[in-house]
Specification:
about 15% strand; 10 strands
Length: about 375
């Protein structure tokens, strides 16, 4: 099992923007030094807590400061721009990163972003589906492209103005062939979108604020999609994000990750809970879909969603998660605001250097038995 990193991020609203950007960069640089496999970075235009407005621009700032970690959009919000721009910018970033780029995609869920862009009343899921189709066509066709897919609003061609002998009219292609790994973050239990991912060989990332009891539904749907095209699903392609904190002693772990009202974990889930209620998507945190909203409390979701403790306790929690969900290829560590930089960095270090080796040793021993 590999370890990855994901951050939206979610900072306190009063923090200085320049300071949080430096902190978010430092977290990815640390993840690279610790051997994390990849880092997914979210983007929002209109959220004072989630303050990375362009994930590709942020990732580009990290290329020269990292060595092996794969740099991933988490996600590029495809309903918010033209697919030609995403295709060209992602191709360039893949070259800048020497092939260390992953394209994470979604429609973009924040309604204030959509309103600011004038698409609040549009079917953003449909725009998203049309956009990814066109991005892949751009990467797989040659100039002048002449992309005119049935029922797709995006028409892409350079035929009328091309001058190919001058190099004019070509759209760039990624370094990785045929294109970078494409990952979709999945929030909903039984999400039908995961079936489509399986059919298209996109890879799922199960969100950290989905209850663990529902995670297996993502794998089942991914297998179904693969089966529909005569392919075999590989657990190595499935990422599962969780909210984790590791400390050298249990008291510190419990205070920082669970009980201290000034801690980043209570702040994070306080924000997420309110935002999911506001967007009418609280079902991702429910034990059953018809569970009353008022039964989903901050205490209940902290108890279910935050894995914390000393090394051995967190190892046991991850192995129990794997027993419940089934085999998966990567656990994705959710990044928080660094209320205590020392504790935040120590947690990442303990995850990489002590928790994951023990998890993998246990998996290996079970497989050999």
């Amino acid at each position: 099992m590999k370890i990855g990193y994901f951050t939206m991020p979610v900072h306190p609203i009063e923090r200085d923007w320049s300071e949080t950007l430096r902190e978010d960069r430092e977290a990815v640089i640390l993840a690279d030094r610790l051997g994390f496999n990849d880092a997914f970075i979210g983007e929002h235009l209109s959220d004072r807590c989630e303050t990375i407005t362009n994930s590709m621009m942020f990732l580009a700032s990290l290329v020269s400061d990292t060595k092996t970690i794969k740099l991933a959009t988490g996600t590029s919000n495809l309903s918010q721009t033209h697919p030609t721009l995403i295709a060209a910018q992602a191709a360039m970033l893949d070259h800048l990163a020497g092939g260390r780029f992953i394209l994470g995609i979604s429609p973009g869920a924040l309604t204030t972003d959509a309103e600011a862009l004038g698409i609040l009343d549009e079917d953003r899921n449909k725009i998203f589906a049309e956009a990814i189709d066109v991005i892949l066509e751009i990467w797989q066709r040659e100039a002048p492209y002449d992309i005119d897919l049935p029922g797709n609003r995006f028409k892409v061609s350079t035929r009328r103005s091309q001058a190919l002998e001058l190099g004019v009219g070509y759209l760039p292609k990624p370094l990785q062939k045929p294109y970078p790994e494409i990952v979709g973050t999945v929030l909903s239990p039984y999400s039908p979108g995961v079936i489509a991912m399986g059919r298209r060989d996109f890879h799922p990332l199960s969100a950290n604020f989905l209850l663990s009891k529902w995670i297996k539904t993502h794998w089942d749907n991914y297998v179904e999609g693969k089966t529909q095209v005569g392919a075999k699903a590989n657990p190595a392609d499935w990422r599962v994000a969780r909210t984790l904190f590791v400390a050298d002693d249990e008291a510190t772990a419990a205070a920082y990750a669970r009980t201290d009202p000034r801690g980043p974990y209570l702040h994070y889930y306080g924000q997420i809970l309110k935002k999911l209620k506001r967007s009418k998507r609280l079902f991702v945190m429910k034990e059953e879909r018809d569970q009353p909203d008022e039964a989903v409390t901050l205490d209940s979701i902290m108890d279910k969603l935050v894995l914390y403790g000393t090394v051995n306790k967190v190892v046991d929690q991850i192995l129990a998660l794997r027993e419940e969900a089934g085999d998966f290829g990567e656990i994705v560590y959710a990044g928080m605001d660094w209320v205590s930089p020392d504790l935040a960095k120590r947690s990442m270090q303990l995850m990489a250097e002590e928790v994951m080796p023990r998890v993998n040793a246990a998996i290996g021993s079970a497989a050999a038995a």
